[in-house]
């Protein structure tokens, strides 16, 4: 028998935030958010076999982005960026979506060949309103991101 | 995105399915960038061949080299027959030296598959230069020429030293450019994006190849992917040559993401400081003096502790014939220490010249080896038992400890050759 006393407070609705941006790659997907303020390297920065960040001193080192909505400032490093994220698609470890702030050729091409919905140019900085673990629905075609705060 | 009539015809399939797939990728990529249009290019530098077991299995399962090109170079899941390239295409470095499989730790099966893919690429029109420095072996774009290049150290050289125009492209965008002669008109293709944003005032003379690497390493960390212009009151005493600017750009592209720099009075878009800045005030002014030089040196040597050296690697970016000549002179009549190995990397064409000049023999007689096509960072190959390496490249010193977990000493070429011959690091900032 449970000894817990039922809470008297009414169950609160989960907090939902909606932000808008520009489509980079179309499509709709959703997943748990993985958020970092560090730029991400492709070649030498991720392991496509596991879909995880491997760069030394990266705040996401060892964490997997497979199936998650990756929220980050942008791409950095070698011109092998697109080829590495291309491999994550072939190995089924790609992120569910890319949300980023800084547009570069590495970032654009990488998102295109990963075939994951991608957006940039937001009306609110996604790094400020999305935290790791939030549930995020990305409708890149409509330019809408719906964030359901966890807990 | 606006397409010309010629581009629309390619997009609609006039030139066959591979060109159509290439245009489809360029349109998706251009729209992702929010580019207004494409620009014509006749100069592509890329990795095309296949060197991984995954690609070998992919080729076996899906229908050979056309299948590999379709997926890995065009992002096409439909296998299309690849026609001959429309524009001049240079092959960049790869993951090993196919002439040295044992040293590089690759099996024969992988080498045989690579050779098959090399023949395929060459048959389509690729120049098998196999170097990160295509500008050393016959691909020297003109000022203002629109290019589609990969490889950060080559991109920064192309934009800055040659005054040509390229963004950092990837394997797939280059694949599409080879077949169409087009690339998105965005970023550094547009004149207004090429002005300097950061002014770097040089308070000291910058002379040696090492000096230029230290300066590049300092600048990259501060400006990240912005555009620096270097300025010395009264002008630089010595105009930097190819090995110096090659080292400088590679260093700045490693510690930051510099794709374009200017040197007032020297590089083609900076005949004057005002021209480099486009008449605007710099966003930030940095000063570079003795303290900054020492700091860059200390950062590059941060991982080094043990003085015992098992491996010395030279040739990042690939050595020029002048650098091989210097190394051969430093080595002549000496022996590489039995507990140490010396590997030097250069493009195939320059190795042929070094063979002819007798430099390869001098290096081999001393117990070193001249290799091509790759480097230790690309191949992840170092001699067995390597714990500490000595390097004369800031770029390699930046990457090798991260990639392989080794300690790295960064110094001059002479210090590195001494380390190879004594097995001990006795460097220090000169």
Automatic annotation (TrEMBL), chain A:
PANTHER family, alphabetized: DUF521 DOMAIN PROTEIN (AFU_ORTHOLOGUE AFUA_6G00490) (PTHR36577:SF3)
Organism: Hydrogenophaga pseudoflava
Annotated Phosphomevalonate dehydratase small subunit-like domain residues: 40-119
Pfam families, alphabetized: AcnX_swivel_put (PF01989)
Listed name of the protein: Phosphomevalonate dehydratase small subunit-like domain-containing protein
Entry keyword annotation includes Lyase: yes
Alphabetical UniProt keywords: Lyase
Record Gene3D superfamilies: Phosphohistidine domain
InterPro entries: PMDh-S-like, PMDh-S-like_dom
GO MF annotation list: lyase activity
């Amino acid at each position: 028998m449970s000894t817990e006393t039922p809470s008297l407070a009414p169950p609160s609705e989960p907090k939902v935030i909606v932000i808008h941006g520009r489509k980079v790659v179309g499509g709709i997907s959703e997943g748990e958010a993985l958020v970092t303020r560090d730029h991400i390297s492709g070649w030498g920065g991720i392991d496509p076999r596991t879909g995880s960040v491997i760069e030394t001193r990266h705040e996401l080192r060892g964490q997997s982005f497979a199936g998650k909505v990756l929220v980050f400032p942008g791409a950095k490093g070698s011109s092998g960026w697109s080829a590495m994220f291309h491999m994550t698609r072939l190995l089924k470890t790609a992120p569910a979506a890319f949300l980023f702030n800084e547009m570069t050729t590495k970032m654009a091409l990488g998102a295109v060949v990963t075939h994951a919905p991608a957006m940039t140019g937001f009306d609110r900085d996604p790094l400020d309103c999305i935290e790791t673990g939030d549930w995020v629905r990305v409708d890149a075609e409509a330019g809408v991101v719906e964030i359901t705060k966890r807990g | 995105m606006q397409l010309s009539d010629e581009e629309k015809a390619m997009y609609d399939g006039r030139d066959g399915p591979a060109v159509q797939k290439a245009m489809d990728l360029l349109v998706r990529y251009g729209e992702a960038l929010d580019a207004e249009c494409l620009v014509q290019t006749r100069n592509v530098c890329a990795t095309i061949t296949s060197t991984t077991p995954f690609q070998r299995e992919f080729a076996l399962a899906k229908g050979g080299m056309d299948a590999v090109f379709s997926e890995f170079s065009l992002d096409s899941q439909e296998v299309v027959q690849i026609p001959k390239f429309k524009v001049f295409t240079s092959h960049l470095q790869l993951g090993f030296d196919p002439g040295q499989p044992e040293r590089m730790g690759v099996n024969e099966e992988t080498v045989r598959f690579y050779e098959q893919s090399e023949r395929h690429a060459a048959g389509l029109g690729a120049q098998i230069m196999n170097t990160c420095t295509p500008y050393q072996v016959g691909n020297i774009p003109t000022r203002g020429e629109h290019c589609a290049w990969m490889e950060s150290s080559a991109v920064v050289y192309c934009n800055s030293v040659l005054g040509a125009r390229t963004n950092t492209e990837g394997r797939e965008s280059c694949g599409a450019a080879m077949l169409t002669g087009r690339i998105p008109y965005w970023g550094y293709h547009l004149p207004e994006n090429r002005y300097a944003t950061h002014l770097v005032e040089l308070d000291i003379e910058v002379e040696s190849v090492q000096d230029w690497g230290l300066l590049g390493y300092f600048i990259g960390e501060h400006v990240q992917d912005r555009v620096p212009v270097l300025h010395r009151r009264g002008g630089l005493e010595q105009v930097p040559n190819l090995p110096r600017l090659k080292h400088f750009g590679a260093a700045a592209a490693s510690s930051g993401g510099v794709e374009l720099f200017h040197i007032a009075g020297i590089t083609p878009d900076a005949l004057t400081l005002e021209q480099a800045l486009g008449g605007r005030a710099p966003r930030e002014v940095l000063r570079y003096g003795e303290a900054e030089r020492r700091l860059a040196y200390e950062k590059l040597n941060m991982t080094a502790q043990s003085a015992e050296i098992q491996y010395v690697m030279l040739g990042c970016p690939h050595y020029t014939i002048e650098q091989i000549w210097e190394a051969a002179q430093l080595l002549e009549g000496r022996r590489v220490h039995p507990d140490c190995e010396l590997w030097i990397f250069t493009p195939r064409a320059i190795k042929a010249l070094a063979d002819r000049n007798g430099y390869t023999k001098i290096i081999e007689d001393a117990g070193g080896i001249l290799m091509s096509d790759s480097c230790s960072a690309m191949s992840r190959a170092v001699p067995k038992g390597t714990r500490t390496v000595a390097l004369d490249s800031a770029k390699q010193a930046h990457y090798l400890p991260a990639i392989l977990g080794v300690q790295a000493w960064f110094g001059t070429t002479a210090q590195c050759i001494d380390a190879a011959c004594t097995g001990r690091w006795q460097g220090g900032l000169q």
